[in-house]
What we know:
By secondary structure, this protein is α/β, with parallel strands linked by helices. It folds into two domains: about 5-205, 2-Layer Sandwich (CbiD-like); about 210-390, no CATH class. About 35% of the residues lie in helices and about 20% in strands. It has twelve helices and 18 strands. It has helices at about 10-25, 145-160, 180-185, 190, 210-225, 240-250, 275-285, 295-300, 315-325, 335-340, 345-350, 355-370; strands at about 5-10, 35, 45, 50-55, 55-65, 75-85, 105, 110, 120-125, 130, 170-175, 195, 205, 230-235, 265-270, 290-295, 375-380, 390. The protein has a five-stranded mixed sheet with strand order 4-5-6-11-9, covered by helices on one side. Strands 15-14-16-17-18 form a five-stranded mixed sheet, with helices on both faces.
Amino acid sequence: MKSLRSGYTTGACATAAARGAALMLRQQQIVGEVEITLPRGETAHFTLHGQRFSENEASCFVIKDAGDDPDITNGAEIHATVSFLTPLSPLPELSQPHPPPDLPLEGGGTILQGEGKLPIVISGGIGIGRVTKPGLAIPPGAWAINPVPRWMITAAIRSVFPGPRSPVPIHCLLSIPNGELLALKTLNARLGIMGGLSILGTTGIVRPISAQAWTDTIDAALDVALACGSEVVVLSTGRTSELVAQGKLGPGTGDRGPGEPLLEEAFVMMGDHVGYALRSCSRKGVERVILAGQFAKLLKIACGHEQTHVTSSELDLQQLRNWLSMTPHTSHLAPHVVDAVTARGVLESSANDPDLITLVCQRARLFAQSVTPHLELKVLLAGYGGEVLYFA
C-alpha cells in the first residue's frame, strides 16, 4: 500500500515566504528557494514564486502543499512582503500587544524572541482573517496569525537580519489572494475569524488524513463558547441537526425551555468526533452538554462508537433489534429491523415510534455519560424532516 505524503501548514509556508523576502531584501537579488527550521527541529525546503525586490522592500510567495491531506488551503498562495520601517513609512497595525516569549524547540534549543532584539512587526493583508471573539490564542481585533507561526516568522527574519545589520525595524505583511473566498468553506466565521484564513500550525507539518483539523476546531469552538459566557454547549453531528437545534434553542426562538435562548457560540459542530468532543468539554469545564443528531448517528453513539463514521451499520441494527426484543413494550418493533438496510429505514418504517426513539436516545445519553460521568447531558433528536423528535 502506498504511504501517504505529509505536507506543510500555512504557518510553515508563511515563514518560508518571509525568509525568502528577507533574504532578497538583504542581498538585493532573486532567491529561488529557502530552508527553514520547524518547531521540532526538522528542516524544510520551499520553492519561492513571484519574487520582487527593491531597495526597501521585497516579496514572494509559497504555494501550499498539504501532501495527501484533503486541506481546503492546498494550492493556496501564501505571500509575504518584508520591508524596512523608515521614519516616512506608514506605521502598520501591531499584530500583538506584547513581544512573544521564547519558543522552546521540542528537539532542544530555543527560538529567541526576547526584548533587546531587532523589532519585527507582523501584520495581515488581503485574505488574512481578523479575530472578533474571545477565547482563541489571539485576542479580538488582532490578525489571525497564531503564536507559533509568529515565532517562526520572527526567528526566520532575525536569522537574516541579526540585529545590528538592520538599523530600523522590519515589517512583514502576510496575505493570501483568495483567502477570503477559501475561508467561506471553513468554520472560521463560527470561531469569530472574519475576512479570511488563519495562519496556523504548531509543528509546521500537516499529517495526511488526520483528524487534527477537526479536533483543533472543536477545541477552539469550545474555548470561544466559554469565553462568550455560555454554560451550555450543543454538540451536533452535522449541519442539519445543528440547524434543527438552533431552531429549537437558539437566539430568536420562542421555545426557550428553562432560561434564555442559547448564544450562537454555544453551537459546536463535532462531526464524527463525539468521544473527543465530550472529553474536551469535560477538560475545559463545560457544565452542560446537549448532543444533537439524527437517528442514524445517535444509534451509533448508543452502540458505543466514539467515532460515528465507523462502518458498522449491520452490527448496529442487530444491536438495536436485541434491545427492542429484550423489552416487552418495544418487542413489537423488532420486526422493523429485520429487513431494514439503514437505521433511517427503521425509524421511518416505524412511523417515528416514540418508544423506539426514546430507547435509542436514552442509550445514547447513557453512553455519553459513561465517557464523561460529570457532565450534565441531554439528547436532541433531529428528524429527517427538520423537526425535533426528542429532547430530554
